[in-house]
Request: fold
Amino acid sequence: MASILNSFNAKSGAVTNVTAPQATVLIWNYKDRMAQPGGALSNTQDTEPVYITTASIRSLRVQKTKSSPAGTFEMELAPTYNWIAKATVGSWLAILMTRDTQIDISGGLFNSSKAQQDQVKMLGRIDSVRMVVSVNQETGARQTGFIITGRDWASIFDCTVYLDPLVAVLAEKAPGSALAATFSNLIINYENPKENNFLFSSTECVKAIKHFYGVGLENLGDATGDGPFGKMALIPKQIFHMPKAVCDYFGFQTQIGLTSTKVGDIVEVISGKLVGDDSYDGTLRESVGLPDFYATAGSNNYWQVLVDHSNPVLNELVAEMRWESDLFGAPQPKLALYKRIRPFVVDKNAVALQIADAGQKGDPTAGLALKIVNEIMSEYKFVKKTLIPTEDVILIDAGTNWRDKINFVEILYDDAVIKKYSSSLQSQIKPNARILDENAASREGLKPMILKTKFFPPPDQVALLATGNDIQLAPMSVTCWKHLLRSWYFDTHNMLNGSVTFIGQNKFIGVGENIMIPVKALGVNPNFFKMMPIQANQLFLLAHVESITHQFAVTEDGARSFSSMVQFIRGIFTDEKGDLPLGLLGEIPMAIGAIDSTSTLMGPADESLSNVVRTSTPLDPDTDKFKGK
Amino acid sequence: MDYIVKDSAIHSDPRHFAAYDAKETSIKMGMVREIYTANSSEIKYVVEVQHRGNTIPVACSLMTRWGGVRNFEEYGLRPYKGNPATDMLGATDQTYDTRVGDLVLVACLNGQYREGVILGGVRHPGRKSTIPAADIAYISEFNGIETKITTSGSYRITNKGAISAPLDAAIPGVPILPEINNPVVGGSYYELSDDGSWSVTDGMQQSIKIDKTGQTTTITAGKCSVTLKVLEGSATVDSPTVVINSTIQTDIKTMMLNMEATLSAKLKAKQIAIGNETFELIQGLIDLIDGLGTLVVTSPAGPCNPLNTAPTWAVSIELLKAKMLAIKGSL
Reply:
């Protein structure tokens, strides 16, 4: 039916698509509500399939924001069952929504059914199943409904991890503190870089900490204790498993292609800079430092520990499902923990010019900055992007954002790590660690972003600066990161920010990804950038997904709707590849994606949106007319 | 309604940065486990710090009284060597009093324990406090050198003769044994006593003492002593043997000089002068010989030839005179 309707739309030139959406929730329902005392692990993990289809769904809403690791879902169900009895809290579930494809679960959850990229919207866990009974005070009719709420898979990060470094592998009678011994080596190696350059990169830290959770005692560190964190123990023992049926359905594997049910094994850290469309250089060591073991020892919030070690000045952590092609080209989902370079760079040539300008103004680190920035630059256009067709767009709310404008960035280095050189280095770092847009500050006042970091560029990046192998001088080069920060934070006012609601898409759109919308969805007009000499049908709004909400509803008359809303930031104009169109900045050809920097370029004809039927009148405030032009 | 979508890069959730922003401002107790040289220029310590029931190593520097290039202070703390048998989890003897590492207080730089500073020490449970039981106002010992100040005001520094210290208890699980001292070396001290006297001794037969009350200075070495008395203005040397070796000159000036030898006395020099401002004895003897040589004796037969005309005069008397001239000194 859907294909017929779409064919009709295409022929008739309709501006919207007619779809026949479907939604299904697959629950791998834990058989027992809690393991019985003495029960074996296999019994605890036993699940049975429970399906929630459109026959039971009144509404279904999944939502995820980038600012929090875990997304949420809420579904309102008809009383086709006593869902409180039927669904066990804590059970894993998959929420499938599709606009026009058939959700086929005939294979059964425990057999041949596999997750489909054009259906899955969330892998989550049930937090609560509630029954709501209301009685109509006039008719006495009782209306019963059920509400199931929960969070997505990334809620595993929003938990407590308890690392007890006192406990080692007892059978080996190793010194009491395995972590202590390991960190001792770290400390000593850090202090003696010439003997053994053993600094951890922030990525290595995150990967090691990821390993804390969901992996058993026996696998922490390698057999010889030579792993990044050596042998250590989690007490209480936290081997966090996902039901095997869930892993089978999604095809989760370890990074070396083995099947596993351990969460720590199947969550993959996606790190580094973007080197191509949705392609990351995971080998990049953008920053190194000494892990703060106090942040890991004892009981701590897992996400906080990850953030602490991720060097957030230069990285962002995003937990999201990721679809990649397997060896046969079929989409295969992964549970991804993105620990990737951010700030993204919209125009790398502009960054180079900016650094050159800083050098001309006397910044002694400019030469080094160019080297370091080039090494770690991650281009915005390479962030995974999904095209939203114009005809699917229901509502766009887009605008400028001066509130979040930054005109001053300073990086504060944590001098505890560089004590030996702290006084001399701080005197060098301080004046070079800041960058100010003086023109903006003179109009706006100071709008600062002052960041602190415990990491610094690795020694190989600062070869220009370091003398011999003197790794201790590396911290000074943190000042070079300011140029990336400037390029990302100083131009927010020239980018679009807002939300777009569209007909639900089959494709999986994750937070932290980009969406592309044909600019004609905003109305065919040149107002956003007058000097951009490109055809409107070749122009797209490229925006970053800050949050996404999928809404599925079945009305009382049985009509189904599936729509999505993306809240976006950093909206710029690009061609279909994400490249900036070449325009004129004054008389200088420049790659320009932001909106006009000079608002008075617009004349009366430009000031009216093309989809508004009106013409300019003598009463319009045409400054050029007033000037006699 | 807030139409502007908040950019998570700018509006970060402070809860997620709680660990990132956390500051550990408390002072921790820990035991020095290792000493190592950082960057070939600084001694640093790995201190096992107690933190919420965990033992966590912290790389520490040592706080000293001065931090200058010219004004500095260095000292080495004592580590303990990890012992798998006694350090194992669940070992009943996993207590501080079985480890000889120094017990210290550690504060962190910048609120993070990436790098700590050893502020000082606290009493090691393996050592009993001394002060309540004795007349001691201050006592310290560092590598076998004890410094003690009594409540009455005396001050003594004693070398107890420490033998190179074992890193661990001799017997696993047994509280640390008293340190073994070398009796041959130990016992030397110098002291400012409560009456203001000053003394230094090897703790055996040798000493130097300035007795403020008795106004006497005494140097003693077994049976030998030199006693200098202020009130009497006397200096007394008592010794079975006194040897004075002087390569150039020895002057003794006094009003009255009494020298007595019960057995023998010797005075030996290449030149000797005995006399006073007007008369020198040897010169007098030479003059006497010359006088005798010219002396004309009148015999009953009449005047004789002078004595120096005698053939033997030149052989014997002149030779004697020449020797006297050679030994003659001057005053």
User: Anything to note?
Assistant: Chain A has a mean pLDDT of 77. Chain A touches chain B through 71 residues (CB under 8 Å).
